[in-house]
Design brief:
Layout: H1 6-11, E1 13-16, H2 17-22, H3 24-33, H4 41-49, E2 52-60, E3 63-75, E4 81-89, H5 98-109, E5 117-124, H6 129-134, E6 137-139, E7 145-151, E8 164-169, H7 173-183, H8 188-195, E9 201-207, E10 213-221, E11 227-234, H9 236-248, E12 255-261, H10 269-275, E13 279-289, E14 301-303
Parallel strand pairs: 4-5, 11-12
Antiparallel strand pairs: 1-2, 2-3, 3-4, 5-13, 6-13, 7-12, 7-13, 8-9, 9-10, 10-11, 11-14
Length: 310
């Protein structure tokens, strides 16, 4: 049997930014049907405005206002990368091959000079990973994504490290430069969207002796309160001082969450956060098409940009 269902492929329709914006109400319903009720209108609007100029939708034949499947794509200037993510299929339409059909269509749409690193941005679950692997994706073990949270009154991250000096920034220019260096991706559009979010804070870490930039972080008000951090970049020593700073500048009480890049037991960021009081919510996998290396200085990639604001 062929991996791909011809009928399923015929149902996958390309859409541009404006069409995705119009589809937000049905995307909210789709996400809720998949158990992701925290993806409300503002979260979808952020995702689409932050860098998504193209996507694919599967509509219900009997009601065009109902979306049965979606997949978003972002292109990053100045790097050979295409990001594919937010692949959702309604429970009522599963078993039809729609997920595979959307992924095949999206991969085939990427220009040859971008096919080197199409990236599923660290959001593959244990259930979804086997499908991606059949399509040619390979898990990158050291790039595992660990979703974590901590109650603010538990976190001890504000303890200063004398080797690091922290400063608050009034713009995203410096952290944008750091983000490009670390990820290899031009995410300035998404960073601007985050910086425009109510209560957004940006902090930079410098070596206390040399003044060299060794880390950076951004925090925003999370959905329903609390603090969401992302991106978080830099040397491991800068992580807790940065988190302590953006936490102190954030709204009220509640939880703090981020998606840490790493695996438990390797002495890296995940272990440091657990020691500081963070709890693990979920462990996901990061994958690249045909196993190509991720761009940028990934050893400095400590925490993902968090697209859904909590």
């Amino acid at each position: 049997m062929s991996l791909f269902n011809a009928h399923a492929l015929s149902l996958v329709k390309p859409v541009v930014h404006s069409s995705l914006m119009k589809a937000i109400p049905s995307l909210v319903d789709l996400a809720a049907s998949c158990g992701w009720s925290h993806y409300g209108p503002s979260q979808w609007e952020f995702l689409i405005n932050a860098g998504c100029d193209q996507g694919w939708l599967v509509r219900d034949d009997s009601d065009e206002s109902v979306t049965l499947g979606c997949l978003l794509r972002s292109d990053f200037p100045d790097s050979k990368a295409v990001a594919l993510g937010m692949m959702l299929v309604s429970p009522s339409a599963r078993g039809m091959g729609l997920g595979k059909a959307m992924m095949k269509t999206a991969i085939d749409s990427a220009p040859e000079d971008h096919r080197a690193t199409p990236i599923v941005l660290g959001m593959a679950t244990e259930m979804g990973a086997p499908m991606y692997e059949k399509l040619g994706y390979v898990i990158k073990p050291k790039a595992a994504v660990t979703r974590m949270h901590v109650e603010k009154d538990v976190l001890q991250a504000a303890v200063a490290d004398s080797s690091v000096t922290i400063e608050l920034l009034s713009d995203i220019v410096t952290i944008g430069e750091l983000d490009f260096r670390v990820t290899g991706l031009d995410r300035s559009r998404a960073l601007r969207e985050l910086f425009g979010t109510e209560g957004a804070k940006v902090a930079l870490a410098r070596d206390s002796t040399t003044g060299k930039v060794v880390g950076g972080a951004m925090s925003i008000l999370g959905l329903g309160g609390g603090t969401v951090v992302g991106p978080l970049h830099g040397e491991l020593r800068s992580a807790l001082p940065l988190l302590g700073t953006v936490l102190d500048c954030s709204h009220g009480s509640g939880a703090m969450s981020l998606n840490a890049i790493g695996v438990k037991g390797d002495g890296g960021i995940v272990d440091a956060l657990i020691a500081a009081g963070f709890e693990v919510d979920a462990e996901l996998v990061s994958m690249t098409y045909e196993g190509h290396e991720l761009p940028g200085e990934r050893e400095l990639y400590l925490g993902l940009m968090h697209p859904t604001l909590g």
